[in-house]
């Protein structure tokens, strides 16, 4: 009896994982865990498969950020040091070749010449470094009639550019349209009502029916392009195996909203859905059950929907709870 129950649980788990776990996109929150709800009280893992770019930092970037003022090689460690070492070695070689104290005096003369040359080179290097850093060389420069007061703006823009953020052009206020377009997209909470939850319940049944019927036109209407690609990929794999996924008698048992927010002109909502359905794999030719059984199984998932302002809600992610 225990072995029978174990095999049944394995079969049901395989059927429920037919779409390959958690996948899709949740906007800026794709790689964040959704908050628990009454329907899904356990912490749900973030999306595992997504076309949304990750935010992993490049190797060494943290070290560069934590040490912005790392010491540069000094003059005597760089070209000046190489020059001085060459002069010293040349003088010593001359002395060893028999020039005696005269060679030593010549060495001192070379040292004096080398120090003068090194001083000139150091001044030139400092001049070009000050030009590159935009310090005093830019402080008094007039740009469009602006005085030294433009220097802080230039420094802030340089810091923004290094951080990969859009910079603000001096003289354009934060309330202008150009500055708003350059500002990064912010996430803000969104209030939903009961009609939205009713729509999500309707989408649950519509998506299952479209997937069972392998109705690609309906899937394109109900899903985001990314989700359409995932579903189409699985339907193609089922066809290659000679099976089709039959999901029927979908009944929603409990549902609530985990979170809802807006990003620019797009709205997002993640709903926890606990539903019951018959989920089976059937042979495409004979219709016989290949995986699963006729007994209904219970599933809890997080479905994320998105819409553009004034548009319809579309499924953009599914997470296993």
Can you offer a commentary on this structure?
The structure is a single chain. This protein is α+β, with helices and mostly antiparallel strands and 321 residues long. The protein has a domain at 2-49 and 187-320: Nuclear Transport Factor 2, Chain: A (Roll). The protein is built from 9 helices and 7 strands. Strands 1, 2, 3, 4, 5, 6 and 7 form a 7-stranded antiparallel β-sheet that branches. Helix 7 (194-213) runs antiparallel to helix 8 (216-222). It is elongated, with a radius of gyration of 34 Å. It starts with a helix and ends with a strand.
Please give the structural blueprint:
Layout lengths: L1 H15 L6 E2 L36 H6 L12 H55 L2 H4 L11 H12 L14 H6 L4 E3 L4 H20 L2 H7 L2 H17 L1 E21 L2 E18 L5 E3 L5 E12 L5 E7 L1
Antiparallel strand pairs: 1-7, 2-3, 3-4, 4-5, 4-6, 6-7
Helix pairs in contact: 7-8
